[in-house]
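Example record used in the benchmark description.
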Amino acid sequence: MVKVLFFGDPGIDDSLAIMYGLLHPEIEIVGIVTGYGNVSQKQATQNAAYLLSLARRRDIPLIAGAKMPLTGEFVPFYPEIHGEEGLGPIRPPLNIKIDFLNFDEIFKIIEKYKHELIIVDVGRSTSLAIAFILGGDIMSKVKAFYLMGGAFLVPGNVTEEAEANFHGDSTASNLVVEQGQNVTIIPLNITNQAIVTPEVVAYISRNVTNRFGPLINPIFDYYFEAYKKNVPGIKGAPLHDVVTLSALVNPTMIEYVSRRVKVELFGEARGKTIADFRPKPEFDPPETLDRIGLQLNYQMFINDLIRVMILPMNY
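Model output (structure tokens):
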């Protein structure tokens, strides 16, 4: 069983990733840290609490993360992609009681599961960077880090060169890739390949046997409509965050290369991910290298997604 501390900003694709993680028989989500990004930190927390309530998993700690980037800059949200409240047309009930915990709960979870715990961060990097700043040596007890972010030798999705998560707080993202050990980066190179079509979603909706079923079609349809406006001719919507979580339990699904990654901090290229892809790259010590996903086994991802999303809840 893979123990996961999940950082995110739900958001449609983050929400689908949480559903996937709660349903997967080989994944145990041991905490969720909610930050800003797709929506405000407050709304992200409300959405995560709603999903945990649906799953009857209020035992999973919900931890309040960052509300803004380290620079204190203005934060734009993306209602045109995720809806005003982050779940497309779905409005989470306002009467859900949110028992969120203080930030230091992160370190208690790391100590509890030390050397077993994997941190998966599919949102802005701010909360995780703060954990490195405050936690110090405690962070070395994390087994591995999986980050959804970056774009290598391909266009960005928020600027010409930068992906949204790493652009949203480039200082934090650079700190995380520099300080983290055993870092795996799932960039747009992979996630843009993880296109889920309406036909796949329709099949899942017809066969679903869990309490997330009524959400899947509406939120996907909203997400797909947004992508059709931004990417003319696209045949489905990319599930950036689901494929990042799926990579944990499907080690042969993605082809990786190992390079040292840096994130551009300033100017028009802010958030751009930099790595040496020359045939003979400069030498970097092995402990400084990050795994970068470059090629996805698409059919393996789709088969895994369908299998997991229709599973019943065993609690």
